[in-house]
């Protein structure tokens, strides 16, 4: 039951799930058919609006709340509404979404609503200092601080904002100095498209995080890199380590006081995770959550509901393998005594 698409009347992808007001709300991309040629820049993922889904019990009926936001109503957007997320604070709901601006550069926007299902009213400009794709919000239950994680390689343009680390992959974690982790804010168009650093001795590109302001509309800190370390060596994962390096689809959740940063490895098609002591990292690689699904992309979220933990993800079974026509599903996950994640076998 739980491995059927949540809905079949539209294609949905990149599910960001949260429990708001006692229901599971899912904020997915809304995939659509286009005649755009497939390429490794992701041009075929040409979405124009978002729908919000919700359910009150696992396996129960899923409500499609209709259009929550459309590209035509966001003044700065030119195209490609990619993977969104939502957060609540101060009694309001905030939708974070990536899209290309009028110059073709991915930025992240924010839109607000009084209710979790929207519709959402967008700010007229993207979040200042934002770039790349796949925003994932996280409000820490400890101190109430909100964070926005983001970044994606190739079509997601993260490599266009990256000055490669001067040091080789032997670089130790330098998280004690946030200043050193602040990243470049110039867009290098020559790096656009399916490219990234290469080398067994060169560190992989790193995802990004910024603290969100109290009103949730802007960044309250510099954009920082998130370090993901090899558990064996304590060093940054290498650029050539495509089975483990960050590609896109950041997600943060907290389990028993530890911070779990999970993501997609892109061209190797895994959902993997790393664990840390702080929402800013560093995080130590901990393993795989999901093996490759049917379709090129994989993208997920993790949420607790009803005392159990749920992985939301997508695959292309409904479209019989068309990469940009995906469907959101959910499965239960479990933790062992060390806090390691696995899929629950009998669902
Ligand atoms: O849906 C468009 C893009 O595909 C997302 O932003 C990526 O995470 C990948 O799932």
From TrEMBL:
**Region annotation Disordered: residue ranges?**
165-200
- Coiled coil ranges (UniProt) are none
Q: Where is this site: Important for catalytic activity, responsible for pKa modulation of the active site Glu and correct orientation of both the proton donor and substrate?
A: 134
Gene Ontology molecular-function annotations: hydrolase activity, hydrolyzing O-glycosyl compounds
UniProt-listed GO biological process terms? carbohydrate metabolic process
A Pfam family this protein belongs to? Glyco_hydro_43
List where Basic and acidic residues composition bias occurs: 165-189
* Entries under Gene3D superfamilies matching the protein: Glycosyl hydrolase domain, family 43 (2.115.10.20)
Alphabetical UniProt keywords:
Carbohydrate metabolism, Glycosidase, Hydrolase
Q: Which family does it belong to?
A: Belongs to the glycosyl hydrolase 43 family.
Tell me the protein's name: Xylan 1,4-beta-xylosidase
What is the phylogenetic placement of the source species in the record?
Eukaryota, Fungi, Dikarya, Ascomycota, Pezizomycotina
